[in-house]
Design goal:
The chain is mainly alpha-helical. It is built from five helices and three strands; from the N terminus they run βααββααα. Helix content is 65%, strand content 7%.
């Protein structure tokens, strides 16, 4: 919900804009440090302009949808820088995704190789066990069959 003429927003919207927990805002309302009223739909509507003084600098910025510590002329430059960072992060994400896929393919190949080697080892072990059993038989059993 956007701002109405009285400067009221829903509790959820106020929490999102101010990057605060909704329960923390409810506590400010209970202590009388923040003004709120129930809307026609029963939801709490918060007046952001009534936020305590230590957060008042961030209030105007929050109402404009920008971070509190940014000067008024800075958002375009910050947006451009953030966009560049986003592009770089997405490129890194894509590169890491490709590396992950390659690593998964190598792991699958290694698992196949391990399976083949294990089967060969089991065949060799069975043959060695057979030879060992034959070696333990008495000579006369070997002669008579």
């Amino acid at each position: 919900m956007s701002d109405d003429p009285e400067g009221l927003v829903t509790l959820a919207e106020a929490a999102r804009r101010l990057r605060r927990d909704p329960e923390g805002l409810r506590a400010l309302i209970r202590r009388g440090k923040l003004t709120a009223k129930r809307g026609n739909d029963g939801r709490l509507l918060v007046r952001l302009a009534d936020l305590p003084a230590e957060r008042s600098t961030g209030l105007a910025a929050a109402a404009e949808g920008r971070p509190a510590d940014l000067p008024a002329g800075l958002p375009d430059r910050v947006e451009a820088e953030l966009w560049d960072r986003l592009v770089a992060v997405e490129a890194d994400r894509d590169r890491l995704r490709d590396e992950l896929m390659a690593a998964r393919e190598r792991a699958a190949g290694a698992e196949r190789e391990v399976r083949v080697l294990r089967e060969a080892w089991e065949r060799e072990k069975a043959q060695a066990d057979e030879l060992a059993a034959d070696a333990r038989r008495p000579w006369w059993r070997k002669l008579l069959g």
